[in-house]
Amino acid sequence: MPGDLKEGRIVIVGASLAGLRAAEALREEGFTGSLTVVGDEPHPPYDRPPLSKQVLLGQATADTTGLPMRRDPNADWRLGVRATGVDLLAKQVLLEDGESLPYDRLLIATGTRARPWPNPEEASLDGVFTLRTREDAGGLAERLAAGPERVLVIGAGFTGSEIASACRERGLEVTVAERGPAPLVGALGGTLSKLAAVMHRNHGVDLRTGVTVTALRGNGSFTGAELSDGTRVDADVCVVALGAVRNVEWLAESGLAAGPRGIACDAGCRAFNMYGIVTDDVFVAGDVSRFPHPLFDYQMLSLEHWGNAVEQAEVAAHNMVNPGPLQRPHLAVPSFWSTQFGLNIKSVGVPTYSDHVVIAQGSLEARRLAVVYGYKGRVTAAVTVDMAKSLDYYKHLIETAAPFPPPPGAQDRAIAADVAIPSDVPDPSGLSHGPTVALTGYLPDRRLTLVQPG
Amino acid sequence: MASDTLLARISDYANRPDPYPLYAELREAGPAVRQADGSYLIGTYHEIVALLHDPRMSADARSRTAPAPYEVTRQPSFLRLDDPEHHRLRNSAMRPFGPPHSPGRVDSMRGEIVQLTKELAEVFQEGRQIDVVDDFAYPLPVTVICRLLGIPDKDEQLFQDWTDTLVASADIGPEGDTAERDQAAGQAEQEMGQYLVQLAEQRRGRPTGDMLSDLVNETDPAVRLSEENLAVNTILLFIAGHETTVNLIANGVLTLLRRPDQLDRLREDPGLLPQAVEELLRYEPPVHMRERVPLVDIDVAGTTIPAGTSVILALASGSRDPMRFSEPDRFDPTRPDNQHVGFGSGIHLCFGAPLARIEAEAALGALLPHLGTARLVQDPPPYRQNAMLRGPRHLPIQL
Q: Which of A54, A361, B77, B378 is the most buried (most CB within 10 A)?
């Protein structure tokens, strides 16, 4: 009976943005049953975008980024406790303290964590940081405020670039080591990565591209790093910004389709089990999910975007308390933003899902432009730099599968607007730093065998 | 009646008190309706929003190739320029006004604005008859914009006369010879511009904390305004900075007095005011129409509009489109998902929106306690001539 869906027990694992928004939405949708939110961090939900921006700049402290609640979700918050597994048959979430939480419906929103430096001994040197949590940001901000001689940032994705930008704004010397040919190349492709490289260098960043860091050095405290080109960087702070790892290990024995690329779910946020059969009572939302998107040929998208966490959480919550025919698909066009080196970068669609790009408006020289991405003759993404108000137009082109390149005649039109050049995006299987868009997503790292029961 | 004369009928003064049935007729007639004068009228929400965001649509009247209703000879303000010039000038004007360079400017005026509204509301004494426009809705935003820009109170009347002349010339309407009107506007603009430039010059090196001081003392040569641009764009800031707010406040009082149930609701819960202001911007917006010109032939829901044609976006119609808003003709301060186009959208999204919101909230907040027993003396009240910037000329009420 449909009415029953508004009652019963719902457990949400993950107490960050997606978990909170889902909890709020469940109540807005009329859920009156018991609601439990489990989070491994001791804090109530907080916002992460300011951690790599305002917090590092000293404009806000890490403990002031708590997420405002749109309404009290009237939930039982189980914070500071880790979920260790799910028993799909018994419908229970297992916690590390030995307790098990029975559920009628479960939402998994465990997100991602920072990809750690692979050598644990080097990673534990004092002065080596990752940036994902409030503690990370607080510790790093403190170190930056103390005025280090030089900061080494490993990885020039969005997080790495924002950290480098914040360091320069604070007047700190910074070296960025990026294994790709330019910053942001993994997310935005070749054209805009050229602008990103210019911005780094114009702002005094010592940018090293095409190199990897082979070792971190120090005796208790970090003192420098060795690079693959044989050079050495002396620095007293190191930030490892190599992207994120999805928090799925706790589901290894659950029988859900959970792997390094995330937990696969259908368009309605319902999780698949490991045989690709959709579950009725387990839902997924946020960074940890992989979902099929019709605008991108139903390939499984993994997004580490703030907006995706919010929108997917709302769809998941709706579908958890409404019967099949009233359920909604998660179709939001992906979008994200970044601010670095005084630039406002906004993206809509999936830039890596492209074969060609054009600079539709503005120019690289003006540092104000709109780049439109196309795949097989249709518009699939757009990125604006300091031109955010134009983004809705391009979003509409993506939503309506408009032909690529976009029609001529725009004001402030670039000379290059008709010249489609290869988008120069990397193979997503090689991506290591986010915000990750892994379209194919499948990693054949675990061979499954169908076990016949009994 | 023929839909190709809708624009003529909308701009006909006789229909000023209630253009909304004409907007309904417009939406019925299709998304893009060709007018007898060759222009197109757009009244549906989704098409309006798409065109406001479309970089192929020019805001520059000089992009017109079709016969223009009036000759454009003067240098346009950024309101009627395209990128990149638009962006450069808007950005220069924005620096002393809003984020990121002056994040606190508007909000820091809130206390002063609330104080002003209290002082002005003192004439609202039981038993008196007052004119909401002359006694309240007009003086408030004029005083605020004068203080913001740094114009001395004593010169307000000068500015009022210049403004009236300029606004009259900015109206749309197929009426005949506008030469006299345009000449008067040219002269008003020149005098007003000269005045503002001279005022700013006095503050070069001697800033007095206002926007004119900031503009003239801008140290970055890349964003500093030339004398001509300083004149044209501060005129825009002055006019746009109060002209519309007067109508917003007067329309607000009129709407609430016509709906005592909603008035009571707001009197009981003034916390609803911010939402009520948004609903007013949807339901009775001060700006009814904006003109755009396609730079290339453009397709609007199956109709090809040739490059250079005048396209009138009926924003007030879009905000009452039943395809977008449920029960659009109902005034509902608790309406969810109220994405009206009262401030436009896209790159020309109203520059002064944050200030307008504060002023309207403060104004209605100060008036609410006095409106419970008030009644309209004249309904509909006499309206101003302008069809694009629509609002009552007077709003007499009995307290």
A: A361
